[in-house]
C-alpha cells in the first residue's frame, strides 16, 4: 500500500527542494519533512518498487576526474558513461584524500544508501 513514514537521521541534509532524494528499490520516497539532521519520507507502494543494484550499504562516491560541472548541482548534467567517470563505494562519511588521482578541475557527487 505504501504511505509508511520512514525517518532517516544524519547530518547535512539539504532542505532545498529537489536537492535531497530518497529512493526505495529505485522508486522515489516522497519527502514530507526535512531538517539538517533528519528527514521523513512517505514510502511508495511495494508494487511500485523495482530491484536495485545498490549492494549492501555505504556512500557511493562518483567522480568525473577531468570535467568541471556548472550550476548548483554540477554532477546532474554529466554523463556516467563518460570516459573520465569513476565510482566507488566508501564505508564512512569522509573522503580522505584523492581516491582516483584527482587534483584540480573535477566534479564529484556523494550519495548514500542503506539496505534494510
Describe it for me?
The chain is mainly beta. The chain contains no helices and 8 strands. The strands form 3 sheets. The chain has a 3-stranded antiparallel beta sheet, with no helix packed on it. The chain has a 3-stranded antiparallel beta sheet with strand order 7-6-8, with no helix packed on it. Strands 2-3 form a two-stranded antiparallel ribbon. The protein is globular and about 45 Å long. The two termini are about 20 Å apart.
Features:
8 strands
Gyration radius, rounded:
16 Å
Annotation field: number of helices: 0
Largest sheet: 3 strands, antiparallel
Strand and helix order: EEEEEEEE
Strand content: 25-35%
Fraction of residues in H or I helices: under 10%
The low-confidence runs, each spanning 5 or more residues with pLDDT under 50, are none
Which oligomeric state applies? single chain
Quickly give the structural class: mainly beta
Overall mean pLDDT stands at 82
Distance between the termini: 18 Å
- Please list the strands of the largest sheet in the order they lie side by side: 1-5-4
**Overall number of strands:** 8
Amino acid at each position: 500500500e505504501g504511505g509508511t513514514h520512514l525517518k532517516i537521521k544524519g547530518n547535512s541534509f539539504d532542505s532545498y527542494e529537489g536537492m535531497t532524494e530518497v529512493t526505495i528499490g529505485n522508486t522515489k520516497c516522497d519527502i514530507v519533512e526535512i531538517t539538517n539532521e533528519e528527514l521523513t519520507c512517505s514510502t511508495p507502494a511495494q508494487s511500485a518498487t523495482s530491484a536495485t543494484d545498490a549492494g549492501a550499504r555505504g556512500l557511493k562516491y562518483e567522480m568525473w576526474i577531468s570535467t568541471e560541472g556548472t550550476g548548483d548541482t554540477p554532477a546532474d548534467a554529466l554523463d556516467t558513461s563518460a570516459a573520465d567517470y569513476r565510482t566507488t563505494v566508501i564505508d564512512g562519511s569522509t573522503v580522505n584524500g584523492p581516491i582516483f588521482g584527482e587534483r584540480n578541475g573535477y566534479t564529484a557527487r556523494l550519495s548514500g544508501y542503506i539496505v534494510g
